Queue: 2 jobs
Job 1
Amino acid sequence: MQHKVIDTKDVVIRFAGDSGDGMQLTGSLFADMSAIYGNGLSTFPDYPAEIRAPKGTVSGVSGFQVHIGTDKVTTPGDFCDLLVAMNPAALKANAKWCKRNAMILVDDSAFDEANMKKAGFTTDNPFLELGVEDRTLIVAPITELTQESLKDSGMDQKSIVKCKNMFTLGMACYIYSRPLEHIYQYLERKFSKKHPEVIAPNKKVLNDGFNYAANIQAIPNTYAVEPSGNVKKGIYRNITGNQAAAWGLLAASEKSGLPLFCGSYPITPATAILEELAIHKSLGAKTLQAEDEIAGICTAIGASFAGNLAVTTTSGPGVSLKSEALGLAVMTELPLVVIDVQRGGPSTGLPTKTEQTDLNQALYGRNGECPMPVIASHSPAHCFDAAFQAAKIALEHMTPVMLLSEGFLGNGSEPWCIPSMSDYPEIKPPYAKAPEDGSKFHPFERNPETMVRNWAVPGQKGLEHRVGGLEKNHNGVLSTDPANHALMVEERAKKVALIANSIPELEVMGPQSGKLLVVGWGGTYGHLYTACQEMKEEGTEVSYAHFDYINPLPKNTEEVFSKFEKILVCELNSGQFANYLRGEFPQFNFIKFGKVQGQPFLVSELMDAFKKEL
Amino acid sequence: MATLTAKDFKSDQEVRWCPGCGDHAVLAALQRALPKVSQALDYAKERYVVVSGIGCSSRLPYYMDTFGFHSIHGRATAISTGIKVANPWLTVWQACGDGDALAIGGNHFIHAIRRNIDINIILFNNQIYGLTKGQYSPTSKFGAITKTSPYGTVEHPFNPGSLVLGAKGTFFARSLDVMIQLNEDIMTSAALHDGTSVVEMLTNCAIFNDGAHKSLSDPAVRADRTIVLRHGEKMLFGKDNNKGLVLNGMGLRAVTVGEGGYTIDDILTHDAHSDNMGIHMMLAEMKGPDMPVALGVIRDVKDVTYDDGVRDQVKDIMKTSKIHCVDDLLRSGSTWEVK
């Protein structure tokens, strides 16, 4: 058989195994290596809520999908070109994600009778049973080969077996013509201090995997995904959404000259933001792991009152617990950033899966007339800018701001052309000055243009004042006067609405008017963008507008909508944004396209939805 | 710096507690203590922040001419924590009731004490929910008849002192609302203490729980039913100051000097600074009819504070880290260049 190296535009690889098989690491390594190689990429970890679910069961399968391309890649891919399945359960859970012409690589050593039974197979041919027997099957005894490779390494059996993911990674590297050097470097960096003894065996097993794949006849062709070189020049790094959000907050701290304070309680999938901020004390960040979600936000509100850039990070159930305190932040008009990395709900729901189902909660989930700016990040790297913007709005407009991220963005990663901080604006909070005539300071007097009150940070003579949850008048004195309450409600709402003057206008990709406008918000951007691109390649140009700013909406929203007959609102919920838009602009024809499966959109299903409306 | 007086801490707001409410006296004591504290520590008035939750006593910040934060029910301790950690230069006082601190805010209360954050908590304990008009609280006596317990409660109350000490509290004091001089002294000691200071004020609710502490506060019996502890002084009490506390096996016992062979040398000397929690716990838990209720500073020990720990860690890491600005951070770790 003649071996060919086929040049290809992009490939999708899905690594799947038991929770303990190291598939997240294997996938991340493959992604990092491809990023450094110069490929565009997007990743999607798909893992169970249990740390170590029962071994060998379908519920315990952990997956990591990586999509690499010659150019920029905006989604992790709908279906995969290569599925790596480390056991029968992984094959069973993931076979449905294989393209028609996919390769399937399995560890034959794990396909024993017991594991087959645990995965629920009833015959001895799992491929036939799943209807994937016609794919290119690479059945390799990976565990045995790893044991053989490392038998003289001096390592114990358990540690040797753990290295099987590196053998697999070596095979994948052969199939996609990836150089191993970057992985060698990673191993050296990671283990040189604490476990230098494991570097050589890991390198060996990686290399043996690569060579094994080269030597067997089961792999007809290999593929090359060579970077096109059409990417923007600059220094790049791979970044996850949670890391980017944390760094965006640190950037806002630097640009405002205010110390960062983060009060948070661990919750999936937002915890990594707190963990990341906890590392960066050298930039003055203080993190407080609170006793509960409520203490997380309340310590942050206290820190805000005391003059810090205050943040609390959480996911949907945490926002529910924080609702009353969010109202307090609205009432006291203190700056605060709340990051909600959304997951499947309601209640505990699907903690490790992605959704956009907290929009209503972000917009409305508080008692009283309680408006709060809501913005959303649209890709892992965009979480940096979104967090920066959230902090800028909070500090300059004296309001809590809700930033909606998603599990898909928080855990997903993409290459990011590193910006320079000199390109970011200064953040200038409206600080109060003590009245020169010695009269009492009035904390709720407003700037008539923005309706923003001034920030009187404790510690300054002449600015002594009281804030609190009770309604007050402009002087900061308690008031139950009906007219005063109506006025304060109106002013707080106006303050939020006027933020529209400080945010960018909505842009439409594609034709600026026509029959159909596709609308999205948040983390569906990559899929919607790709679906529009693919429609264009098929010869149909689709108009598409994506919202990063949800409350207030961009000023030109109504004007944009007025140019289209139908507006198709695509979101990972049952139509929350569509309902919101209907309330704001009842004159337009909004059509809902929702998905609530705990999974991102598929490009293919979006294209089908577009075609239906065209 | 001009010397501050109690008047400097009085705001222009009308005090709206009911006539006869114990909170008036506690406010007065605080306004008298702060000038002393300011002088001792050279604090300007603008360094003070007074925080509260929800409840009658939580209106206190409005009556203080300082920075103030009247927050939400139960959360004052978390707000105070954030203020102190964000800016340790500020000096934080907190007013909260027994429902606010020990029911809805119980979690924040014990965790602030565990972390030993340098804040001063005045716990107004009137054993009732006043602002909601008379329901039992976590400190109401077993069997208390209230609007929500018309046949008497069937639950045990917290003793705030044992809760504080159980959470490894470094400062606990107790007093009666009416003892203004003692309260001024206790509040001064609380302010001088580094770490979480909890001052339990047994206050009277004239409307919904009138006389709850009368068995202690009544001048006719107060000297015999309470003991005011002062560090370094003999644990003596009684109208004639001839009763005292002695160790008796594993516990404490109240005796009369000159009776049963007990002399003044047998009477214990109060050591509020002792690390030994055991005797402080026994003192905090004393109750009638056999024992006097302990007032004064029961425990006042040194330990590292959370706010200092956070600040020092930031300082240390700033010195050793190679990342000094966000541009450094963005370029740290694995990066590659596209030329």
Job 2
Amino acid sequence: MTPPSPLPDADELKPPPLSDAGRHLLSISDLGAEGIEEVLRVSDAFVEVASRPIPKVPALRGRTVVTLFAEESTRTRLSFETAAKRLSADVLSFAVASSSVKKGESLRDTVETVAAMGVDAFIVRHPSAGAPAQVAGWVDATVINAGDGWHEHPTQALLDCYTIRQVLAERAGRPVSESGVGDFAGLRVAIVGDVAHSRVARSGVLAFAALGAEVTLVAPGSLVPPSLEGWPVTGVSHDLDAVLPHVDVCYLLRLQTERGAGSFLPSIREYTAGYGLTLRRAGLLADGALVMHPGPMNRGVEIADEVADLPRSLVLRQVANGVAVRMAVLFLLLGQVVRGDATGTVADLGHGYGPVDG
Amino acid sequence: MAERRPAGAGGRATVVVRGGTVIDETGERRADVLISDGTVTAVGPDLDIPAKATVLDAGGCLVVPGLVDLHTHLRQPGGEEAETVETASRAAALGGYTAVLAMPNTNPTIDSAAVAREVLQLGETALCQVAVAGAITVGRAGQCLAPMGELAALGVRLFTDDGTGVQDAGVMRRALEYARGLGVTLGQHCEDATLAAGGHMHEGAWSSRLGVPGVPAAAEELMVARDIMLARLTGGRVHFLHLSTAGSVALVAGAKAEGLDVTAEVAPHHLSLTDGELSGYDAVFKVNPPLRTECDVAALRAGCAAGTIDAVATDHAPHPPEQKEGPLDVAAPGMLGLETALAVTLEALCAAAGDEKGKGAMSLHDVMALLSWRPARIAGLDVGHGGDQGGPIGVDGPANLCVIDPSERWEVDPDHLASRSRNTPWAGRMLTGRVRHTVYRGEPVVIDAEAQR
Amino acid sequence: MAERERRLTPPRGGVFVPRVQVLAPEDVQRAITRIAHEIVERNRGLDDVVVIGLQTGGVPLAFRLAQVLEEMEATTVPVGMLDVAFYRDDIGIRPVLAEAITAIPCDLAGQLVILVDDVLFTGRTVRAALNALADYGRARAVQLAVMVDRGHRELPVRPDYVGKNMPTRLDEQVDVSLDGVVLGDVVAR
């Protein structure tokens, strides 16, 4: 009998970078610090592409990318589809009503049917944690997790890291392309809100911590995960006022309003009173502290209207960077697949693939 | 019953189990066992072998009373795409079992004499004895008491709403009081529905990391504690099904020390697997109660060694592939167990075996007690209750035997299981200890690890 | 070719072993000066000229060439760099480099682009570069300057300005920098 794999420490989550080994992006832990850094670096190139008169490159011409969304999320789907199209991939959009899965057609049948049409990548959004990992086991194509249950939303965390890196580089007055990830060392990040039910929080914690940030969770007790064993966080607080003056980034999570129906929280009003970033609370933030939110925002719940529109709020920039970061992920996973024997000799590569056509 | 079996010729044959070590409740000794007409006719070293006798080689093997499974989901009626009485009984025989207790969560539920009779009738041609557990409440809905008297008259000795616990303490109290008058046992699937709601694996470090809704240990322990109090209140007899947490073991130990009439079983997978198995979201490891932590595994093993746990029961729960291929929160809970239980239990508990979690503390004799004569007694299938299971191997005793090679290493291949389903958590793993022959009421139903029909 | 690029290109970890020094540093300097003269002569000055170096080997040459042009004509010459990784037909063989930044100094519509690279070999990089340039606007014309033309073309591409024509074997490598041109081999480590 083989023992079950032990719970991975954050320190151990360091597989080789994406372009070398990874075929899928299911979790931030597939990347490790090096992989995250690589994605951020390549994202720079795609931010530049986005600034061109014609913001489209032929890198993934002939590749087919399917967005398989078993849970509606227009913004995430559009972001991925824009990214794929700007790389010249063919994009098929497939919406699976989650109810139809329950009604008999298994996810596996659906996925295998679509895969048989010749698909290079599946971008999977699913209400069940682990569904993208399962899809990866059924098909040969690359699988990218676009959000699975409460588990992870890795591209959201990557675009958040990119946005932080971009802003910090601008403040330091240097081009973002010259920024490594050194700015994250010791960066104090508070993730505020419904951590227990948040895939954004899980990916965010792993990504920020992998790059060296100190992550604090701030949430009411009923919205803290049952166990934080193995989570690379410095602490948990139930007092947002006390935390705010000491953070560089205040990352607000979306509160699903049904949580306020009495089972997890007495009311939305009480949540906002304790954990919403009101204008008063925003005043507690240190100068230059950043306010982030994965969207869509519940204005007046986790973030006050006035705060959402403050210059320190990066919400729209997060959205804009989303396309570039997802282009980087798609390019690294699909464009970097070495076809043929990577250990061959130069002579084998000879015609057309000569590495010397500098 | 043997007379009614069409294949009864086998039961009439003369069989010699030669060269093994007999282990039963009375102890351990080197002996051959001679069986004629479905009864043991001689036990002793180097017996003369009659002409035309079927000789079963037991060299290097243990010869034990047939194993008794307190917890089998046969799926028939209603779930024949997953398993039938016949296929499950073949799996049972291959796993060394000569009796299984069919759980009542079939469709329809075994909550009436008609359904119980149907299953008992299907069991008459099976490769092992098929006993039936009845539901405590009608449709296992937890509200109205099922006709326990009518079922008890058919020989039903254990009642349970397995698959769910009886949530209403008042209903459980009345059931215990009523059962006391019938001399039957109530088995409880301990799970508080409000605490377990929406959970799909053990609530802890792994569920938190994987983003999967969890079932806290307290969901089980709350009901164990409640039913111990109800046992105290009513004087009724409670059998705790598939306990999975350290806290439950402690509660049962306390109840036993107090002298309450409680017994408990544990499933082999809870003795060896932990929630970390779910790190890849493979629903084959989804089971109810869920796989718990290393601490719980250690406490369950210790509970077996200390006598707190009375039986190892498989909770054999077949599911067709489509019910195991979906996402974790959609997939059905449950795993196969009949064909692997013996090996897994030996590895987990036995001092002579031992796996990577450390050597077990128990003798072969004590492990066999958990698998054979103690569960036989709980199910009311032992000689004392007029049955023929789990008894000592002696002259004129019942010829339900199992011959075990404790050192054979084998790989579990789901495609070669007798069960109709493939949802074994041991697929591709090496196990140590295998059933070589099984003799059911004098008939060698398994010879050299091959089912004979 | 940049050392890092070679490291990431099959055979991974191969080492460049120099064999013959073909051009000395001053030869490279003279070739750049000559090419600058040819550019001015052919285009009758430097009106609308933009110099774009191809990442990674063409970039230092482009900056040097622009500097020579500016000194020669006492004017300013916009200079930029272009990475064609996303346009290549052999994506997956060549890595995307961190330092491979694209920076185009101005709108290219109506401009005369001098594309600069270190080595012209199969012509595929230039093909990719032409596609990339088109996304920045419709240049009036594009001319190609290379330090070494080593032959073995696989596409109908012809340079306008050449530092040195140099016949090579397919399995040889040419290393070009402002410090000279060296012919050698890549040996798997």
